[in-house]
Each structure stands twice: as C-alpha cells, then as structure tokens.
Amino acid sequence: MKATARLAGVAVLAFALAALFAATAAASGHRHHPAHPPSPPPGNAVFVQTNDPAGNAVVAYDRSSDGSLSEAGTYETGGLGGALDEAVVDRLASQGALTLDPEAGLLYAVNAGSDTVTVFALRGDRLQRRQVVPSGGDFPVSVAVHGRVVYVLNAREGGSVQGYIRFGTKLHPIRFWHRDLGLDTEAGPEFVTTPGQVGFSADGGKLLVTTKANGHAVDVFDLNRFGGIRGAAVVNELPETVPFAFDFDPDGHLVLAEAAGNVVTFDVNANGTLSPLDEAVTGGAATCWIVGIGPRFYASNTGSDTLSGYDVDGGGLLSALGDTATGPAPIDAAASADGQFLYVQTGAEGGVDEFRVNGDGSLTQIGSILVPDTAGGEGIAAS
Predict the structure, then answer these.
(1) For residue 137, how far is the Cα from the chain centroid?
(2) Which of 219, 261, 254 is closest to 240 using CA atoms?
(3) How far is CA 304 from CA 42, 226, 230, 365, 383, in A?
(4) Which of 142, 202, 342, 383 has the least CB density, counted as fewest CB within 10 Å?
(5) Cβ atoms within 10 A of the Cβ of 119, count?
C-alpha cells in the first residue's frame, strides 16, 4: 500500500510538472502562466472572512455601480477560525488570509483553527466549496498564487510555507515544496512574532515571507521554473522595523509596510537580496497592511484609524497622497478589479469601510457596513 501511494504521488508530481513545463514554454516568457488563461469570472463582489473559531465562513457582498455593498450570502468554509495569543483587532495578524485567484475563478480561505485551506469556485457573488486541503503546517494565515502555483504560510511552530499545484479547482500539495522558517518559538507575543505574509515577486521567480518582530526580516526563496523552492531563503534583516505586509508596483518594486510607521520600496535582486529605494514615514501608529492599485498604495495605520496614500514612480520613489480617516483599527484591504473602489476592514468592530478612489488618488468614503460576527476577524478580497 505504501509503495502504491508513493507511486501515485510521483505520478501526480510528474504530470503536474509536465503541464507546468508546457504552459511555461507556451507563455512567451511569462513564468507559471498557462498559454491561454481563462477569462476572470464576471461579477462585482467583495468577500469577507469571519475567522470564527466556532466555524469559519466567507460573507459575500454585491457591489453596486456607486461602490456600495449589499449582503448576498454566507458560505461555510468547512474549517475553523483561530486566534493568536494577545491579538485583538486581527486574530491572524497577517495579510492574504483570503486570496482571489481570478485566472482560475477560485477563492482561497485559510482555516487557522483547523490547519486547512478551503478552495471555493467563484461565480459572481456566489461561492461553491470545492476542497478543504491540509495547510502543511500549524495555523495557516496567508495564501499566495501565481499561475498554477499556490503557497500557504503557516504561522506557528516557527513558521513554514507549503507549495501546491492547481489542477482545475483542486490543489495538490508537493512534498518537496515545503520549507520551515525556523523562527524563534519562544518569542512573544504571538501576534507580533509570527510571520505576516507570503507572496510571489512580480515575475513569479521568488517567494517572499515577512517575519515581523521575529527576526525583523524579509525571507526570499528562489523558485525553479516549475514554482518549486530551491535552497534556503536569503534573509534580509531590517532591524527594528517589523516588516509586515507588502505588494508590488507595476515596475516590480517591492512596497513594504513596516509596523514601526514606515512605507519602504525595494528592488528584489536576482540573488534574493533587497536594495532599498525610498522610505516614507506615515506618521501613523502600527502601519501594518498595504494594498496597491496600479502605482498607488494605501497603508493601514491600525493604531491611528487612518490610511496613508502614496504614489510610486517608475524608480520606486514615494510621493504622499495624504491621509484618510477610517473606522476603528483599519487592517486588511482590497481594491475592486477596475481600481475604482477600495474596501478596508475595521477590525475593532468587524466592519468594512467603502471608499471611491478619485482620479488624483484621494479617497472619498461612500459608507460602511458591519459584517456579522467578525470583530477581530481578517481576510478580504474583491473582484
């Protein structure tokens, strides 16, 4: 039986790599993407994860033409939410807990309390649960996707990442695509010493992980042509900064939110090191989350109830767009696919603030909603 299982696993891996190789070769240099990606599913929707320890769920909202939201349905993930020690406004203390895969028409949700990830098929504002797969570690908090390759970040037991290949609507874990981060398990409190986000570099050739106050670093893994990790991470230490969440600008620069109150831009070099380009002090407390809309970025100052906006030029230089007031404790955020609207979770009360993005990058609040049973929850995505 064990031999049969091993052979089956090898067969799945071989088939997966063959498919990825064919897709990569046909994609004219775009790594990991299929030659003819399917069109994104239609719909104007926003999805919010409850992260309820008694039973996790995703609440779907319709987005009207003016950007306002109306509840459309609630979908159980089949797993449990979780809470890090001493976390209050964001029990996962991460970015990317709910991740949209528009190329495949899927939505990935972490179940931190049951060490699993749920795969939903997405049709407009409707979700259909397709799979609940083990996360490959303890307490998953973040998901990243690039083409057919998906990685999950696990926060506890020193942190780890686990890689998957997607076929259709199912994720298949690849045993060789697992790495332990080796963070200090005695460091505390958990909500500031567990890793914050996993994400691909703009070209898909690197995998990045922020370690927050546990090492104050951005770990960069090199990936092979199939998306598998090769070798150990390059550890880029950023002393006393608490690197938390990140995104990339249209020119491929890393745009990083540091909880110490900064937004910083970097080049990601071929050898895995980071070269600093620019830095801006937000003037806010606990600058932890950040979302990009083209060359514009909005960082959540959780301790100050504000968003700080920035333009990033072609050289990675930052220009301030000003601050915008939010509800109590803004955390994770998501922009509509057309870039016209921004939705920001307010963790203290379990709400979502709705903003219109103006032509000059300023934000106009449209309204705010309360999501049932989500105070302290985390995870938002928009189509």
Answers:
(1) 17
(2) 261
(3) 36, 42, 41, 17, 28
(4) 202
(5) 24
Q: Write the CB contacts of 7 (distance below 8 Å, at least 6 apart in sequence).
A: none
Look up residue 320 and give its two tokens. Answer: 């301030």
Whose tokens are 């203390």? That residue is 93
Identify which of 218, 265, 266, 258 has the alpha carbon closest to the alpha carbon of residue 242. 258
Structure tokens at 242: 């608490």
pLDDT digit string, tens, across residues 108-142 = 999 999 999 999 999 999 999 999 999 999 999 99
Report the run of H or E that residue 16 belongs to, with start and end.
helix 2-26
Exposure letters 152-189 (e unless 16+ CB within 10 A, then b): bbbbbebbbbbbbbbeebebbbbeebbbebebeeebee
Distance of CA 95 to the CA centre of its chain: 5
For residue 224 the two structure tokens come to: 């092979």
User: Does 10 score more than 80 pLDDT?
Assistant: no
Residue 21 DSSP code: H
Partners of residue 256 on adjacent β-strands: 246, 264
Report d(CA 378, CA 257) in Å as an integer. 17
* DSSP letters spanning 56-73: -EEEEEEE-TTS-EEEEE
DSSP track, 278-303: EEEE--SS-EEEEEEETTEEEEEETT
Backbone φ, ψ for residue 250 (5° rounding): -60, -20
**pTM for the full predicted model:** 0.91
- Decide: 145 and 101 in contact? Cβ < 8 Å: yes
Question: Tell me: the pLDDT tens digits for 74-117?
Answer: 999 999 999 999 998 999 999 999 999 999 999 999 999 999 99
pLDDT band at 17 (very low <50, low <70, confident <90, very high): low
Provide the 3-class DSSP secondary structure of residue 241.
coil
Q: Please, what are the domains in the chain?
A: 2-26+42-382 (2.130.10.10)
- Determine what percent of the chain falls in helix, strand and coil, rounding each to the nearest 5: 10, 50, 45
